[in-house]
Specification:
With 154 residues, the chain is α+β, with helices and mostly antiparallel strands. The protein is built from three helices and eight strands, in the order αββαβαβββββ. The model has no long low-confidence stretch (mean pLDDT 95).
């Protein structure tokens, strides 16, 4: 397990009882470096959507728990927020909830001249994702996908 994965896993474990107590669910936790700064981001959600008070309450409680445990030696910025409307679908549980919804897929390398595809998420397994679009059903290898996210319809 990498250092990043360890920090994310340990943070998620600290966050579980906090999220349950606040009536929210954990969508994702990520530890990333952007420029010269490290960020520890916790994304929370609930059926009716989270508000600023939810984020503030979870952030305060998580910050206190992280200070007590003190397992991240680097300075970092803690952020707690909603995953947003165009949320990335990183985990199988995210994909499972999104079956039947329109998604945008960005590939690492072009496939038939395109790196971006849009369609309705039909199914997935450990190695592939199937979407139905204007040109019919298409199967993508999961390791070819840079990002898959819910499509925003304006």
């Amino acid at each position: 397990m990498s250092r990043r994965e360890d920090y994310e896993s340990r943070t998620e474990a600290l966050l579980q009882p906090i999220a349950a107590g606040q009536g929210v669910e954990i969508y994702d936790v990520e530890y990333v470096k952007e420029g010269s700064d490290y960020y520890l981001r916790a994304y929370i959600d609930k059926p009716e959507g989270v508000n600023i008070t939810d984020c503030e309450n979870v952030s305060r409680a998580l910050s206190d728990a992280l200070d007590r445990e003190d397992f991240i030696p680097d300075a970092y910025i803690l952020e707690v927020s909603s995953p947003g409307l165009g949320r990335a679908l990183k985990k199988d549980r995210h994909l499972a909830r999104s079956i039947g919804q329109e998604v945008e897929i960005r590939l690492y390398k072009p496939l038939e001249g395109n790196k971006e595809y849009t369609g309705v998420l039909k199914s997935f397994d450990g190695s592939s994702i199937i979407v139905t679009g204007e040109d019919g059903e298409r199967t993508f290898a999961r390791n070819d996908i840079a990002v898959i996210r819910l499509a925003l319809d304006f």
